[in-house]
UniProtKB/TrEMBL annotation:
Designated name of the protein: tRNA (cytidine(56)-2'-O)-methyltransferase
SUPFAM superfamilies: alpha/beta knot
Family: Belongs to the aTrm56 family.
Gene3D superfamilies, A to Z: 3.40.1280.10
Catalytic activity, reaction form: cytidine(56) in tRNA + S-adenosyl-L-methionine = 2'-O-methylcytidine(56) in tRNA + S-adenosyl-L-homocysteine + H(+)
Amino acid sequence: MLRLGHRPGRDKRVTTHVALVARAFGAKGIYIEGEDENILKSIEKVKNEWGGNYFTLSFIKNPKKLVEEWKNNGGKVIHLTMYGININSIAGTIPDLDNILVIVGAEKVESWYYHAADYNIAISNQPHSEVAALAIFLDRIYKGEQLNIVFGDSKFLIVPQKAGKKVIKK
Ligand code: SAM
C-alpha cells in the first residue's frame, strides 16, 4: 500500500483506517507519505494485541521514487481512483498479488501517478473514500478469503457470538 498526501491532524483518522484495513485484509505493509507518529503508535498497538507483526508501516518523503523503484523491480502499480477503469470491467486481469503496490490518495493526486500506474482502477466511477476503495479492491483480489484471516501471533482471539462479546487471552 502507498498512502499519498497524508496531512497530519486532518487525515489522522482516515490514514489510520487505511492502514488498519490494509493489515486486517492481507496487505504486507503500508508506506505513508509524510510523518505522523500517532498513526505508528495506533498500528503498533493493534499489531501487539491482535497480531500481524509482519505488517510494516514506513513514512516516506519521496513516493515517486518508491513507485519508480517498484516498477524497476518488476512489480506492478495499481492506483485506485474514481477516474480509472471500473473494476467490474477488468476483473481477472490483475497480476501477481505478491508484487503489487496499491496507491490511494487523500485530496488531489498528482497526474504523474495516473501515468506512472500500470492500472488506474475505479471502485465505481463515483467519489467516495480511500478506506472503502481499498476494502472493496482487496475483497475482489482475495475473493473474500481475507475475511478469514487469523493472525497466529495475536494475544487475543475473538470467539464469534450471536450476541455479546467473547475474547480469549492466548
Ligand atoms: N476527487 C478526489 C480525487 O482527486 O480523486 C477524490 C479524493 S478521495 C477523498 C481520496 C482517495 O479515495 C482517492 O485518491 C482515491 O484513492 C480514493 N477513491 C475515492 N473514490 C474512489 C473510487 N470511486 N474508486 C477508487 N478510489 C476512490
